[in-house]
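Exercise 4. Each item below gives a protein and its sequence. For each, produce the structure-token representation.

Item: AMP-dependent synthetase/ligase domain-containing protein (Polypedilum vanderplanki).
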Amino acid sequence: MEASFNSELKIWRGPKIPYPFSMDTMISDLVLENLSKTPERILQITRSDDKAITCNEFKISMIRVAQNLAKIGIKEEDVVGIIARQSHLASYIINGCIALGALINPLHAAMNETDICGIFTQTRPKIIICEFDIIPKVQWALKNVDFSYQIYSMSNENSELLKAEDFLKPTDNEDNFKLPRFKKPANEKIFAILCSSGTTGMSKGVCFSHSSVLSLISEFPKTTYTTVSYTTSPIYWATGFFPNITSVLLQNELRIVYEDKQVEIREIFEDIEKYGITSASITPTLLALILQDENIHKYNLKSLQSVTSGGSIVSKTLREKFAEIFPDKVMMVPYGLTEIFVSMTKPNEYKQEYAVDLELVKEEKF
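Answer:
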């Protein structure tokens, strides 16, 4: 199989291979199917308070989000902006929007007013779900836009604000929920607009179809044991956004939810040891600090099998240090994770330091 290049559009494409589902199969079809198979299985745990959520609790919550969003007029193809920390509520909202057919557009809390205005002026969200402390910045950024929107707060710090938690109110119709059939097939139906990391310039909006995720998930190895995933990335990044979906699509995964805040190296060590984390996504800067920490050998990190690190330069020194400390663990380095979903390399397979091996690029499936 060979990659091809469209010189007119200036687009590289991997080889096309058959899509493993029918084109009317969407993400939420498989999500609800998987959640129904093991209703009592623990799906997610928030590391700050050890609050565990079962598959059935998750299913009911995402259905309520979809139904309550529909009640306020959100419909297929509407955009829902979100600037929020990782949480159970954020996961419910993301999956509820996907079920309804709305498009999720996450932004980073650290973005300035110009960037927020620039993205949202293009995507024109009907509602924007924010952390309480971000709301003034969003209001200032959008004070002159030519579209209407409503802001919902992720917390209850101001009684006058609309609350995102209201989307979890019982509807008394959860058992009768039916997934809507969308107008477009899976390879055309967009469910999210993510911004690139900005590594190579200004952040760009990237659209994701249902087929792009389901194709990738179909390639994941089937395991008979429970994998425990962990990421310190915010929802804005692909490594922080997609675990909210992939963990629900995989039947043997437990996700540890690390709420965005000042990261403590000690907490990461403690979490790996406490929860038996098998796969972690960690930024290069944070990974460098972890590998330099003098306490790294004081913790039992044997459960960890792989670490994904990207979003900025992953130096040769960092890769070599990882291999030195963790010779039995795999390090994956994604490049263009948001733009091409997903291209990764294993550092120990590098033939030349700055070469690109097209054989390692993920095949495109449509």
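Check: The radius of gyration is 20 Å.
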